[in-house]
Amino acid sequence: MNTSEMMENAEASPQLKARLAGFFYLLTFLFAGVASLSGKLVVSGDAAATATNMLAHGGLLWLGFAAYLVVACYVAVTALFYDLFRTVNRSVSLVAAFFSLVGCAIQASICVFLLAPWILLGGAPYLSVFKVEQLQALSYLSLKLYGQGFDICFVFFGFYCLLIGGLILRSTFLPRILGVLMALAGAGWLTFLSPQHAHSLDPYIRVPGVIGELSLTLWLLFMGLKVERWKEQAQRRG
User: Fold this and answer.
1) I need a surface site. Which of 10, 34, 107, 178 has the fewest CB within 10 A?
2) pLDDT by residue (tens digit) across 19-39?
């Protein structure tokens, strides 16, 4: 490989990272949509009906483990974003990555609660010491714990989106409107600091959240970033 080809590859590197970030972000959306199908099994306040749904449509419960794929993709996005935005502010980019990785760790751990109902309702002989109603209640409790854990994840991802929005606003290689949209998305997710209020405002929170994150996703995937400006900002940061 000659010198000019090496320079061309180096120049394409941040662009490639931007495209990859968009790709993994899009996969996050797709897998999250698949994982959310398991939530349709839950009948609010009715453990028996929820258990019936889980037994009748057990395959949907296992779709919840697509959440693990969500975590894997979001970790990839976090690593790529850290590398791209450290040219803007290394400390803020590192703090943002911390919030995202903590949220990912929590989400990965709470996925165990999606497996518990399958075991509790599986009819294993050692579970015969429990009454049917008790097993149904424990299964329902497990799903509720998963939901509450997911609310906690939203708080960490809210801080992450807010910080990424700020980094985009201070960058010179992405449109500022994307920073505004990401900041609005983060502010929306932060309402999960009070989950009961967040759920009552659910449509008003999710719409700006999805618009903000999806806008950034599609921009990175199809438009990428301005490489020269990224390099200029990287040189100024040293």
Assistant:
1) 10
2) 999 999 999 988 888 777 777
- Using an 8 Å Cβ cutoff, are 35 and 66 in contact? yes
Q: Which among 199, 206, 123 is positioned nearest to 158, based on CA atoms?
A: 206
| DSSP 8-state symbol, 128 | G
Q: Give the DSSP H/E element, type plus range, for residue 35.
A: helix 3-36
For residues 108 and 116, is the Cβ–Cβ distance under 8 A?
no
What pLDDT, in 10s, does the model give residues 145-186? 988 888 899 999 999 999 999 999 999 999 999 999 999 999
Amino acid symbol at 85: F
Name the pTM for this structure: 0.87
Q: Which helix (H) or strand (E) holds 48?
A: helix 47-56
Rounded Cα–Cα distance for residues 186 and 167 (Å): 13
Which DSSP symbol is given to 172? S
What angle separates helix 47-56 from helix 132-170, to the nearest 10 degrees? 80
